[in-house]
Amino acid sequence: MEVTLCVVGTAPQLLSPDLVNGMMCSLAQQSAEKIDRYRAHAGSVFVRLLHSNNPAVPHIPHREELLAIFPT
Fold first, then answer.
1. Where are the domains of the chain?
2. pLDDT in tens, 17-65
3. Is the pLDDT assigned to residue 13 strictly greater than 90?
4. What is the rounded CA–CA span in Å between residue 9 and residue 6?
5. Where does residue 6 rank: exposed (0-12), middle (13-18), buried (19+ CB within 10 A)?
């Protein structure tokens, strides 16, 4: 999460649509893990990246729909 937010602020062109899609899909999958602490941490990171807006993480698939599902 910290590296992604740092890259977004300094070189967002490094975050390709495929990379961001894979990252968000992996976080969503980890959010369904059986182990509570992994599930909670992945969910927290997912929501933080989704709601970051200074600047926003580019290329998050279905951003508007996800923002409706996961409000701040």
1. 15-69
2. 999 999 999 999 999 999 999 999 999 999 999 999 989 999 999 999 9
3. yes
4. 5
5. exposed
Round to whole Å and give the CA distance between 25 and 11: 22
Q: Residue 2 corresponds to which tokens in the numbers above?
A: 């910290």
Q: Which two tokens stand for residue 57?
A: 């993480």
Neighbours of 47 (CB within 10 A): 17
Nearest in space to 19 (alpha carbons), one of 60, 48, 51: 60
- In angstroms, the CA 57 to CA 7 distance is 9
- Angstrom distance (rounded) from CA 5 to CA 12: 9
Q: Is the pTM of this model over 0.85?
A: yes
